[in-house]
Design a protein that fits this description.
InterPro entries: DsrEFH-like (IPR027396), Sulphur_relay_DsrE/F-like (IPR003787). This protein is an alpha/beta fold. The chain is 38% helix and 22% strand. The chain has one domain (4-119): DsrEFH-like (Hypothetical Protein Ychn, Chain: A). The longest helix is centred in the N-terminal third of the chain and has 16 residues, at 16-31.
Length: 120
């Protein structure tokens, strides 16, 4: 049975350690074979746009762009609908493979039996 993990990132460059932790945990879970869904909310929503993850820097952490690429390769990334709208971007603006969805989709994912959810 495949283990599932939903990670909700609420921080971006405003709280770089929390942001990096969310991406790191999601990428490591993908590497471990888990079914991973990373949700980008609040300031982390910016990382759904081309070039934004490459601009992020945090000493002693893996490059955010590498983590993002790993998650996209083996998991799912979703941007909160309201968070994207507040930042004036939509589906045509995000990186290929990233979707925009709302709270109902998030709740559906986390209420599935056996899913573990983490919020950063």
């Amino acid at each position: 049975m495949t283990r599932s993990l939903v990670v909700k990132a609420t921080a971006g460059a405003d709280a770089p350690e929390r942001c990096s932790q969310a991406f790191t945990v999601a990428a490591v879970a993908v590497a471990a074979g888990a079914d991973v869904s990373l949700w980008l909310t609040g300031e982390s929503a910016w990382f759904a746009l081309p070039g934004r993850a490459a601009q992020f820097e945090l000493a002693e952490s893996a490059p955010l762009q590498d983590l993002l690429d790993a998650i996209l390769a083996g998991g799912r990334i979703t941007v909160c609908t309201q968070c994207a709208a507040r930042r004036s971007f939509g589906p045509p603006d995000v990186l290929p493979g990233i979707r925009i969805a709302g709270a109902a989709t998030f709740v559906d994912e986390i209420l599935t039996d056996g899913v573990q959810a983490l919020v950063y």
